[in-house]
Amino acid sequence: MDLQLRHLRALVAVVDAGTFTDAAADLGTSQAAVSRSIAALEEALGAGLLLRTTRHVSLTGTGTQVLAGARRILDEVAHLRRIAERSRTELRIGYAWAALGKHTRRLQKAWTAVQPTVPLVFHQVNTVTAGLSEGSADVAVLRLPLADPRFATALIGRESRFAAIATDSPLARRRSLALADLSRYPVAIDSRTGTTRLDLWAPGTEPVTIRPTHGVDEWLTLIAAGQAVGVTSEATANQYPRPGVAYRVLRHTPKIDVWLAWWADDPPADLPDLIRLGRAAYGLDEAERDDRPGGGRTGRG
To answer: Average of pLDDT values for 225-253?
Structure first.
C-alpha cells in the first residue's frame, strides 16, 4: 500500500491528541478510520510506529523519527497550499471555540473600511492552532499558550471569564458566581482547545468530577441538560446563546489573553492592519501589549 498524506495526518493527530478517540475528533472522522490509517502507514513503512495500551499511546523509536518527518512533510504541504491560495481575495481567520465574541462584527466593519477588496472571513477549526497547521487559516485567534517556534503571535485583547450553567439550576438565580460555587458540580472541560484548566481553582477546591468534551457544541449540550457546568471566555458567552444555558460573570478570576497567531516565516501582507484594528476593537492599552514570536505569553486558560 502506498503512503498517503492522510496516513501522516493520522499519526500526527494521534500523537498530539494522545488518544485515537481525540485524534478522530480533531480530524473530523471516526476512530476506526484513524486506526486504519495508522495500520496502513505501518504496513507501507514495514515498521511499528505506536505502542498501544488501553489508556496510553506512545511512539516506538522508529515512530519518533517518522513523526518528525511527517511533521516536515505536512508543513511543506501546508506551505504549498498557502502559496496556491494567495490568489484568493480574502483573509481567513481560524478559531477553535469563539471568534472575537461581541468584537467580531466591529472588527469586520473596521476592516472593510480600510481593506474593502479583501473580505475578513472567520471559520471554526477545533484544533490547537485553529487551522494554521492545517493550512486552512491565514491567521488564528488563540486563547491558549502556543509553544511552537513556527508561529508568531500578537496580543490583541483580554476577556473576562463566565460560568455556563443550566437555566433551571439554582445558580442561575445569581447575577455573578465564584469558582467555588461550581466545584460541587461536574465541570465540562475541553482539554485540547478549551480555556479551562484545573489550576484556576485554589488547591483543595478543585471540582470533584470532570466531564471531558470535544468542542463547544458538545459542551453546551451537556450544560443545557444540567449534566455539567462550564467555565469559558466572554467571547463564548456572546457568540453562543443557547436555549437552556445561562451565562454568569465569574468573580475574582484571571482574564483570558486573546492572541492572533500566524506562520512566522510567512505573515499575511495586511497583518499590521489586522493587529491594529483587533487591538482597537478590544481597547487594548499600549502598555498591555506584549508581542513575541511563537510561545509568547498567553496567560492561564
So the answer is: 96
Read off the pLDDT band of 261 (50, 70, 90): very high
pLDDT in tens, 10-22: 999 999 888 888 8
Same domain (yes/no): 211, 246: yes
**Number of Cα atoms under 13 Å in the Cβ half of residue 287:** 0
Backbone dihedral angles phi then psi of residue 145, each to the nearest 5 degrees = -60, 140
* CB-CB contact of 171 with 165 (8 Å): yes
Distance CA 59, CA 13 (A): 13
Please tell me the distance from the alpha carbon of residue 246 to that of residue 220, in angstroms, as a whole number: 10
C-alpha cell at 188: 465540562
Domain count, the chain: 3
Domain match, 123 and 228 both:
no
Q: Does one domain contain both 173 and 28? A: no
**Residue 128 belongs to domain with CATH number:** 3.40.190.10
Q: Which residues contact 165 (CB under 8 A, 6 or more apart)?
A: 171, 172, 177, 223, 229, 230, 245, 246, 248
pTM: 0.72
- 300 belongs to a structural domain: no
Question: Which residues form the domain of 18?
Answer: 5-84
The answer to whether residues 169 and 177 touch, using CB atoms and an 8 Å cutoff, is: no
Residue 140: strand pairing partners: 94, 261
Statement: residue 293 has pLDDT above 50: no
> What one-letter code names the amino acid at 184?
R
Let me know if residue 225 belongs to a domain: yes
Q: Which three cell numbers stand for residue 208?
A: 470533584
Rg (C-alpha) for the chain, rounded Å, is: 20
Phi, psi angles (nearest 5°) of residue 40: -65, -40
Measured in residues, the chain has a length of 301
3-state DSSP percent of the chain in helix, strand and coil, to 5: 40, 20, 40
Cβ neighbourhood burial of 155 (10 Å; 0-12, 13-18, 19+): buried
